[in-house]
Amino acid sequence: MNKPRFKPYKSASGGWGSAFSVANILIREKSPVGSGLLLLKQNKPIEGFACVSCAWAKPHPARPFEFCENGAKATAWENTSNRCGPDFFAQHTVTELLNWRDYDLEQQGRLTHPLRWNAETDKYEPIRWDVAFREIGDELRAMADPNDVVFYTSGRAALETSYMFQLFARMYGTNNLPDSSNMCHESTSIALPESIGVPVATVTLNDMEKTDGLFFFGQNVGTSSPRMLHQLEEARQRGAPIVTFNPIRERGLEKFTNPQSPTEMATGKEITISTHYNQVAIGGDIAAMAGMCKKLFEMDDQARAAGKPRVLDVDFIEQHTHGLEAFEAKIRSYTWEELERRSGLTRSAMELAAMVYARCERVIGVYGMGLTQHRQGVMNIQMLVNLLLLRGNMGKEGAGILPVRGHSNVQGQRTVGITEKASHVPAENLKKQFGFQAPQDDGVNTVEACEGIVSGKVKAFIGLGGNFVRAVPETLLMEPAWRRLRLTVQISTKLNRNHLVHGEKSYILPCLGRTEIDVQATGEQRHTTEDSTGCIRAWRGVAKPAAPNLLSEPAIVAALAKATLEPNPRLDWDAWVADYSLIRDAIAESYPDIFHDFNVRMLEPGGFHRPLGASERKWATETGKANFITPDKLTPDDDIEPDLKKQGVLQLMTLRSNDQFNTTVYGYSDRFRGVYGTRAVILMNRRDMARHGLAEGDMIQAITAVDDGVHREVGPLRVTPYDIPEGCCGGYYPECNPLIPLWHYAERSKVPAAKSIPIRLRKVIAVVKDRNVPSEPASPAGVGAV
Ligand SMILES: Nc1nc2c(c(=O)[nH]1)N[C@H]1C(S)=C(S)[C@@H](COP(=O)(O)OP(=O)(O)OC[C@H]3O[C@@H](n4cnc5c(=O)[nH]c(N)nc54)[C@H](O)[C@@H]3O)O[C@H]1N2
Ligand SMILES: Nc1nc2c(c(=O)[nH]1)N[C@H]1C(S)=C(S)[C@@H](COP(=O)(O)OP(=O)(O)OC[C@H]3O[C@@H](n4cnc5c(=O)[nH]c(N)nc54)[C@H](O)[C@@H]3O)O[C@H]1N2
Ligand SMILES: [Mo]
């Protein structure tokens, strides 16, 4: 491991830094990508594969190189030549592996054999596929109540697998189908239907080409969806302003050098991405947007008085919206003083943002985890919609709302039934197709699944991908509770911590990755996904499977279902596995509005879009209109926050580095933030450091500042000065997850509030030489013995 280094990164995002980073990862993973061949197929529909990293839309026609630095890393990660087979497991007990870092676990490479944990040896041992399925089926059939089982999905599985998985769970008798979205964009799924009657983005790539202004809240484009930088570059070249709200100056939101443009690379030309950068306080977005709205109302008053064209889109508001009056009254009632205090921005910054907004005719509101992962996550999003509605920026070309989704098919999984909510299930159609009644009670979401695991209600967990126990809050409560589960089954590509924190009976079922060729009885199979813009397309793997023994995800889900359920004369799981187009026929029957003629339309150049009423100004809301929703508070702590500040409490946001995909740590270089060789850091404002008597390089323990009788602590973390608003600090996810109380989540959506954890600091070592900084907090579970 390299010695830790802390050095601000001067270059733009993209550029040579990106090119070198891609080269490094290809060399390290000894991946066939090194030949470059695989990457040329990346994000090329029909005959190529969809990137396994983010869900950002893929343009049609595709560029020759339709991948980014992080997409290349994700492909290389999946196509590594390292293998984690029976030999590895023969050498290491699970207890020993529990002390390994996330990085070292996944670095072992692709899983090659189905494995069963042996309690006597404390090792995972190879097992035959048919035996594994039979044993798991026996366990599931022996459960007293189907609701004792949780069927979790991480957002990567294709539409076909996801549809089969939800059908399996529902036929088994439960709606317990939590997914990664419950930790991510569930705030979107609650907020948008109330506001505009659709649960997802209203924007397509065509709108990105036509927009004349982008307002960016809490989304780190340079790391989380770098391909979008191409659309942002084009928008900037058209002269469209980009106004950003983010507590820290993320490099991808500042400047970009297109690594695929020979001229830009040769000349080092940098494109300014954000024309206006507002370092809003963590959790200050409602206040910031309220400030913008207040200014818009004031500008509209002036325009009206002067007989000039109105600033508000009064025709749109009149015809298409509901609730302006209450909203306007509330916004006007806020004083600039309180808006400044809550947002951390100056009045003039908010006013300027409003004036830029008012000058644009077609605006897109873009957002990510900086809005969703807050206690007021749902209201954050509804406030952004309010702002858009004031000027009719919904349902017209070049305008709309753009939640940038995370996992590459997380949006699509919801579309085909991965949801715990009974009301979202096409129960009538399922009954017609398969002659069974889907369960009518809601199942558990992610937080409720955790509660059920802690209380002992949940007895078994089947994970279709993901690293659940590492991704969820409250690590120190969850890990011991997890061990009390009767059965844990993980369908996975690589070894992760959730395999090691396991139930009494535990199985790892290794699957093909999406980049790999999937041959079944009728030949090579395609699969489909839906991206952040609701575009559905077909793909196929092109790489040789990592091991001969791997099964595809549909084959594994089908075998589990067959081993568990009574045979159903209307559902031939084997025929589905032999020919995935039959699964797509079934999807089309369940969801005809979206998926009619699925097998044909998936091959259309550019794919097809799901219909979205809001983008045609048809509002499937209770009022039949787009709704202004009035915030009742600017921050969840309106009443207590000043007090907390006095007591030295900081708001911690947990961040992704540029060298990770969720719990997968590719390496220890967060280049854009200038942090190298370690993830055991806390990024702090210098004035807060002084206030806490801390110097750069001091080591601290972070302790959650809530009063519920539970002690939560992570460390040691190196104090690292950073350009971040006072009262705010940053640390890395997942290392900081032990700090998040399970009950600390967004109201109504229950998305863990991973971006505003109140913490206190305790100094443990005064300035140490940086060579002593650990690469990660002391143990994977986060609590450091000091
Ligand atoms: N390379 C890479 N790509 C990924 C992922 C990955 O881990 N690595 N993960 C994927 C997944 S599942 C998801 S959900 C997405 C996540 O992608 P993003 O939505 O970008 O999520 P984060 O990186 O967690 O944080 C987003 C930003 O929110 C800012 N922020 C924090 N608090 C606030 C706040 O109160 N207000 C505002 N305005 N901003 C705030 C942070 O500074 C950060 O820049 O990315 C996907 N793509
Ligand atoms: N503190 C904090 N916590 C967070 C977040 C945060 O910002 N802060 N973000 C949240 C968000 S947005 C999300 S989406 C969740 C992520 O939670 P998850 O989706 O559960 O976690 P991942 O890290 O994406 O899962 C990685 C594992 O997936 C498996 N895998 C990879 N590819 C495949 C495949 O093709 N098929 C199968 N079957 N398995 C595969 C590998 O074994 C790998 O180890 O974490 C959440 N937790
Ligand atoms: Mo996510």
State the gist of this model.
The chain is an alpha/beta fold and 786 residues long. It is built from 34 helices and 34 strands.
Describe the structure.
With 786 residues, this protein is an alpha/beta fold. The chain folds into four domains: 3-77, no CATH class; 92-182 and 408-595, Rossmann fold; 184-401, Dimethylsulfoxide Reductase, domain 2; 636-761, Barwin-like endoglucanases (Beta Barrel), CATH 2.40.40. 35% of the residues lie in helices and 17% in strands. It has 34 helices and 34 strands. The strands form ten sheets. The protein has a six-stranded mixed β-sheet with strand order 6-5-18-17-16-7. A hairpin with a 4-residue loop joins strand 21 and strand 22 (535-539). Helix 7 crosses helix 28 (553-564), helix 8 runs parallel beside helix 28 (553-564) and helix 24 (446-455) crosses helix 26. One ligand MGD binds next to helix 25 and strand 17. Residues 110-467 form the Molybdopterin oxidoreductase domain.
Distance between the amino and carboxyl termini: 21 Å
Supply the number of helical segments. Answer: 34
Number of strands: 34
The whole-angstrom Rg is 25 Å
Major sheet details: 6 strands, mixed
Strand-residue proportion: 15-25%
Shape: globular
Kindly state the percentage of residues in helix.
25-40%
CATH T-level topology of the largest domain: Rossmann fold
Mean pLDDT: 94
**Widest β-sheet, arrangement of strands:** 6-5-18-17-16-7
| Small molecules bound in the structure, each named once | ligand MGD, molybdenum atom
What structural class do the secondary elements suggest? Answer: alpha/beta
Give the CATH class of the largest domain: Alpha Beta
The CATH level-2 architecture of the largest domain is identified as 3-Layer(aba) Sandwich
Q: How many domains make up the coordinates?
A: 4
Low-pLDDT runs: 782-786
